Amino acid sequence: MPRLTKLDHGSICVGDVDEAVAFYGDVLGLAQVPRPDFGFPGAWFDAGGTPVHLTTDGTLRGADSPVRANESHLAFRVDDVEAMIEHLDGHGVAVWELPDSPAALRQVFFNDPWGNMIEMIVY
User: Is 24 in contact with 74 (CB distance < 8 Å)?
Assistant: First the structure.
């Protein structure tokens, strides 16, 4: 039977590409990488070797969507979770931490401005 071998990229919908570039690049610190012209707006970022593709005109959850571990999300390892929490707080981004995680030392979740949930994980 054929099998999937590796996650190639993650793609999420955002409401505004310029705002998303500022959020994912300036706030989260991901490096923007070149993106081919598909004939519709978007941006690509590198997350430690795994591309994150941002696109528009899809379904948006909304910035006030629930933040909890069982919602669809992207998960990123983080080198200093406390510093990142403080950094996000300084940008008005609220975080929620899964108490007593059975899978990691820390699992902290937040929404981007369009309701895409993001996890920061520490093993």
Answer: no
Q: What is the pLDDT of residues 87-107, one digit of tens each?
A: 999 999 999 999 999 999 999
Between the two ends of the chain, the Cα-to-Cα distance in Å is 32
Cα 44 → chain centroid: 12
- Which are the contacts of 116, defined by CB distance < 8 A and separation ≥ 6? 12, 13, 14, 61, 73, 74
Distance of CA 32 to the CA centre of its chain: 13
Overall pTM surpassing 0.90 (yes/no): yes
From residue 75, give the alpha-carbon distance in Å to each of 14, 36, 92, 120. 17, 25, 20, 6
In 3D space, the residue among 79, 93, 18 whose CA is nearest the CA of residue 48 turns out to be 79
Domains of the chain, earliest start first? 7-58 (3.10.180.10), 67-123 (3.10.180.10)
